[in-house]
Design brief:
Blueprint: H1 3-15, H2 18-30, H3 36-40, H4 57-81, H5 93-125, H6 129-141, H7 154-157, H8 160-168, E1 171-175, E2 185-190, H9 197-203, H10 210-213, E3 218-223, H11 233-239, E4 242-244, H12 247-254, E5 261-266, H13 269-273, E6 282-283, H14 290-298, E7 301-308, E8 315-316, H15 324-336, E9 343-344, E10 362-366, H16 380-401, E11 414-415
Parallel strand pairs: 1-10, 2-5, 2-7, 3-4, 3-5, 6-11
Antiparallel strand pairs: 7-10, 8-9
Helix pairs in contact: 1-2, 2-4, 5-6, 5-8
């Protein structure tokens, strides 16, 4: 077999596509002079001249075009076998900008803290170490800010990027009743989801119009204290209105005189994120009574909030209770305080796999406020009674709105 024929067979083995290999092999062999013509020229078949293997310029172009076509066909067939659905090449600019905004948001949640920490370490080891030392001093002096209302920036919350972020899903905020700004409020956000997209879009940005819908109220989304210890990253998340989820932080907000403060807490917390997958309606609420006690102590009115579509954004690896994966996730959560759901959805240029959320609508419904009378030392019966009233209010929000957002009449919340 000639060297070009051997090359064609090697290409066939690499592509692992029999039809493609036959096409390449046959095409190249037809461009090479057969060995019978060598006999007529007076040479032995095993001693062909070099010129007999040279292709004319036009034939080289033809073979190159054939190989390119074969590669395209092979790529298309592989994509079909792997069920990869690529995004259209021609998309409106606004959709590209929406995707870019969500890429930035996912990167901020998953990697920005690590990047900021690495940048601080490198700054310490560089000739500019004096800047790192000054910032470290600032961190010490500013250590209580995340527990005292944070340091929000209206400019950051109003970035045009958040509008594209909102329109990617899209995210909408629905009001059930007016909220009197003379009181402080404790919003219970359900479900937690994987990355709390609805909570961030509605309460950490002005994209959904919270300030216009609830004039006089200032929302604060509570986040794990761990993240406020990361240099630089803490400044970014505080600018959006995120504050520490420590008890002292929530107490500071709910005890402010004059009212108008709205502390938003994802009640299910990190454990609930491990069960966040499409169709899930299980909420970890039966044993979550700390926020109820906090509301009683400060006389903050409770507001149940349900975000329809929050669990539809990501798929998750199967991790039923008792499985090896779930035991490992629970162990890491107890050690680190952070849940690690193994989620996946779509990518930037294809819709089959990746870490970007699906384009599924999120409808966040803010329920009616539950009046709470201040009780500095609430009893267990007081806490249980208000807890039952809160679950009733949350159930009412869900039942009244589920059919409007694509859920059937037989779907109900499951409290654990």
């Amino acid at each position: 077999m000639t060297s070009r024929a051997l090359w064609s067979c090697e290409l066939a083995r690499n592509t692992r596509n029999r039809a493609a290999s036959d096409l390449v092999h046959n095409t190249l062999l037809t461009l090479i002079k057969p060995q019978n013509s060598l006999k007529s020229a007076g040479r032995a078949p095993h001693e062909p001249s070099i010129n007999s293997f040279r292709l004319r310029k036009s034939e080289c172009k033809q073979s190159l075009c054939v190989c390119v076509c074969v590669c395209v066909r092979v790529r298309a067939r592989v994509c079909v076998e792997m069920k990869i659905e690529f995004a259209p090449v021609r998309l409106p600019l606004r959709r590209r900008l929406q995707t870019a905004a969500v890429v930035q948001w996912v990167f901020s949640f998953l990697a920005l803290a690590q990047v900021c920490l690495a940048a601080f370490v490198l700054l310490c080891l560089s000739d500019w170490w004096i800047l790192a030392a000054l910032y470290a001093g600032w961190l010490y002096l500013d250590r209580d800010t995340p527990s005292c209302g944070g340091r929000r920036s209206h400019w950051v919350r109003s970035w045009r990027m958040w509008t594209y972020f909102r329109d990617y899903f899209p995210i909408t905020l629905m009001k059930t009743a007016d909220l009197d700004p003379r009181y402080n409020y404790l919003f219970g956000f359900h479900p937690h989801g994987v990355l709390v997209a609805g909570g961030f879009g509605n309460f950490c940005t002005e994209a959904s119009g919270f300030s216009r819908m609830f004039p006089g109220l200032t929302p604060y989304l509570l986040m794990l204290p761990f993240w406020f210890r990361v240099p630089f990253f803490r400044e970014y998340i505080m600018s959006g209105g995120l504050v520490s989820s420590e008890k002292a932080s929530a107490s500071y907000l709910l005890s402010r005189p004059g009212g108008g403060q709205a502390a938003v807490i994802a009640v299910g917390g990190a454990p609930e994120s491990l069960d966040a997958r499409p169709g899930a309606l299980t909420l970890q609420l039966l044993q979550r009574k700390g926020f109820i006690k906090l509301a009683l102590k400060h006389g903050a009115w409770l507001v149940p909030v349900f975000s329809f579509g929050e669990n539809e954004l990501f798929d998750q690896m199967e991790n039923p209770t008792g499985s090896a994966l779930r035991r490992m996730q629970d162990l890491l959560q107890r050690i680190m305080g952070v849940a690690l759901p193994l989620f996946h959805a779509r990518g930037v240029f294809q819709y089959s796999f990746g870490l970007l959320p699906y384009r599924k609508p999120i409808h966040t419904v803010v329920g009616r406020a539950i009046p709470v009378s201040q009780n500095p030392c609430p009893s267990k019966d007081d806490i249980d009674a208000l807890h039952a009233l809160y679950m009733e209010g949350l159930t009412q929000v869900f039942e009244e709105n589920k059919e409007n957002y694509g859920l059937s009449q037989d779907k109900h919340l499951n409290f654990i």
